[in-house]
Amino acid sequence: MLLEMENIQKTYGDFTLNCSLKLQPGYITGLIGTNGAGKTTLFKSALGLITLDQGEVKIFDRPFSQLSLKDRQDMGVVLADSGFSGYLTIQDIARIMKNMYQLFDQDGFIKKCRESGLPLNKRGKELSAGMKAKVKVLAAISHEAKLLILDEPTAGLDVLAREELLDSIREYMEPGDRSILISSHISTDLEQLCDDLYLIDHGNIILHEETDVLLGSYGLLKVTEEQIQKLDKRYILRRKKEAYGYRLLTDKIGFYRESQPDIIMEKGSVDEVITMMIRGERL
Amino acid sequence: MKIIINNSSMQPLYDQITEQIKSGVMQGTLKEGENLPSVRTLAKELRISALTVKKSYDILEQEGFIVTVHGKGSFIAYASQEFMLEEKKKEVEAELESAIRKGRSCGMKDEELTDLFYLILED
Amino acid sequence: MKGLLLKDLLLLKNQQRFFLLFFLMSAGMLLADFNSVFVINYVTMIFSLFTLSSISYDEFDNGYTFLFTLPITRNQYAAEKYVFGVVTGGFAWIVVTIFAVAMNFFRGRAGAGELVGMAFLYLFISLLFLAVVVPVQLKFGAEKGRIVLICIIGAIFAAGFVMIKAAKTLQLDFLSTAAASLSPGPVRAAVPLISLAAVFGSYLISVNIMKKKQF
Fold it and tell me: Chain B: residue nearest A214 by CA?
């Protein structure tokens, strides 16, 4: 297991993070939730930046405290609100990275920065948000890290920049010996990238499912008052009152497609699933 | 051959991929022994989860259409084409059976059914 | 630690003008025949203060959060601050001392050995200074740290002042006679030892402070 968080708990004032999460080898695992749901707290606990009230974090099957510096070099990190000092230039960052990570490909990194049109001798604070994000990701994927931990790497980027970034991440996964934990509040990004998704809300994991299953087996049923009376509700997870009757979330849309083809149905999207899981009521 | 997926279709993604590979084999656009792209590469190209691609490759392997060699990749199995044709023939047979049953159950005579069959064939 | 040193040195680039200004000022002071020892001491201390600004840079804009995801330990981080202080302060010390000795020579004055001896003494006093300011800065951060430092320095001066006043009032002359009778040898040996011990103790405190920090 690349990363394993078992029943971790951390309380900040009136917010409590309480969850478990696993990142399996070769997977891209997504963590999705609204701002304030606990994504960053989860990441900080995974990275040893904060201490936990309860529970344990294991990276490369070892407790965080037992990781050697060599192990730490096998990790690449991108954080949303933090990075290298804005007073350093990209050239500076390249030289520092080379000194910290044995496998840092300095020439490759500079080359990719040039290709992306990034000004090598401008200080970080003079770069746009998109450029800053690119530098962070490029730095993290230039030292053969086996484990990438990316906290909102696409935040603040426009559609094109996001696509480019996601493509670089996909390319990075091709060798097959790498794993990624990535968070975002933009679900479409993660839908097209991740192998499995954890949905987090108010510090709790409310759903963990393979993306494939989420997109293929989950769905929405839109029914009238009458239809819901006659409906087999075994596979209904949530319901929400609407003007026309009810909106229902199911994780076995195939069942309903076969047994009740006359009902209006929609494919599951991560956004819909999140909304229903958080706002919908249980049956 | 290029696989194109429809993200808005109700058909599960892995099913779309499996189907397209199978039809590629039948139509000859995928040759026997041809190397399929790796799971991660196809996932990158299609912009979907690698697990989804793996699922379809697993199904295809289970059904005998492809063979995976560890370290080398996945290949279209030999005699896939014949195998697929056999499968399709069986499906046609089953559908004909079902049509005949339906006809008989609403009172059509064998002669009527045969006439109808030849009429359709000529269209 | 190399990476951390490199980072702090590269950040120093941002303060080039300050460097230049300072060296010019000290050169000016030496040319104008200010007390050489004072200039050496002053410059060395100021330069070791660059450690404090490096801590500021680290703090700024949530910098620490990312910094500690890099392959470094909290021990290394603390240690590097002292090394950086010695490197920057030491560099300034060498340049100014050489210049001061040269000025002495051109002025045809004797006592170069004495000058260098005093310079060394003040080098170690700068270390002592470093030993005090680094943990304070790490614990309280840049802004609060400044206030705490001013208070501490103020307290030291006040304490010293009170002691001298008390000694005078109570006519405790024995202190000054005792001080005068101390041969320079033991004093000169004690200072380096005390400052090295202080730096080591300070390092341990800093490590403790960093270990407790949450980002």
Answer: B12
CA distance A30 to A200: 10
CATH fold, domain A3-213, is: Rossmann fold (3.40.50)
Residue A257 sits at the chain B interface (C-beta within 8 Å):
yes
Q: Is A217 in CB contact (< 8 Å) with chain B?
A: yes
Q: Is C214's Cβ below 8 Å from some Cβ in A?
A: yes
**CATH number of B13-78: 1.20.1730.10, 1.10.10.10, 3.20.20.210, 1.40.20.10?**
1.10.10.10
CB contact under 8 A, C63 and A82: yes
When scoring A93, A100, A106 by the number of chain C Cβ atoms within 10 A, the one with the most, hence best to mutate, is: A100
Which range of residues forms the domain containing residue C159? 2-212
Task: Dig out the tokens for C49 from the structure.
Answer: 């203060």
Contacts of A215 (CB under 8 A, 6+ apart): A191, A267, A268, A269, A270, B12, B13
Question: DSSP secondary-structure letter at C15?
Answer: G
Helices (H), C60-111: 63-67, 74-106
Q: What is the pLDDT along chain B (123 residues), one digit of tens a residue?
A: 688 998 888 888 999 999 999 888 878 788 888 889 999 999 999 999 999 999 999 999 998 888 988 878 888 887 767 777 887 888 899 999 998 888 888 888 889 889 988 998 887
Strands of the sheet containing B35-36, edge to edge, are B35-36, B73-76, B66-69
**Pair type for strands A15-23 and A3-12:** antiparallel
**ipTM of this predicted structure:** 0.90
Nearest to A236, CA basis, from A245, A226, A228: A228
Q: State the total domains in chain C.
A: 1
